[in-house]
Amino acid sequence: MASDYEAWSEVRTYNEDWLIPWEPQRHPLQGDPVNYRAAFVARCNARDRDRTADYAYAFGVFVDQRVAGEINLNGIIRGAMQTGTIGYWIDQRHAGQGYTTEGVAVVLRFAFEELRLHRVEICIVPRNASSRRVVEKLGLRCEGLAERFLEINGIWEDHLRFAITLEEWVDRREELSVWW
Q1: Contact 142, 106 (CB under 8 A)
Q2: pLDDT of residue 180
Q3: Which residues lie closer than 8 Å to 25 by C-beta, 6 or more apart?
């Protein structure tokens, strides 16, 4: 929400060095939402439009009622695929405490039980041990390596693709629900 700008900007500024190695570069003509409220508001508005169009859903991670990260369900495809992709980041001060794992489990529930998706994937740069730990804790299936899959910090990076289907969710829902 636009009202979260100061708190979100503070967390992103504090974590700049922690997050930049794992994120796409911002387009040079796109405003910087970390440093400019108007760009942050535009980002929030775009996310509202994505949600309304059933294309993507953005969720904040809050610890002690303070912004601590985000988990996003992006690239939703309907029709025969019924799929989406989860991406996430967490404040380094809260990393390793299970908040991201819990948040991903909640977003998986939303994806399967509310949106009725059939498949959700998480794509991770192989050397990103922290992000890999999240999918390992959840026991998501690794489907292999996608070469030069996404631009990350100016480089077309390989990504490991992890996934879970609705059938797996139904079988493992109770096990995965312990995270929240």
Answers
A1: no
A2: 67
A3: 151, 153, 154
Sorted by sequence, the CB contacts under 8 Å of residue 10 that are 6+ apart come out as 67
Encoded tokens for 50: 């994505």
CA 90, 95, 100, 102: dihedral to nearest 10 degrees? Answer: -150
Which domains are assigned to the chain?
A: 2-177 (3.40.630.30)
Distance CA(20)–CA(101), nearest Å, equals 21
The pTM score is: 0.94
* 3-state SS assignment for residue 16: helix
pLDDT along the chain (180 residues), means of 10: 88 94 87 91 94 97 95 98 98 96 97 98 97 96 97 96 98 86
Cβ–Cβ < 8 Å for 140, 120: no
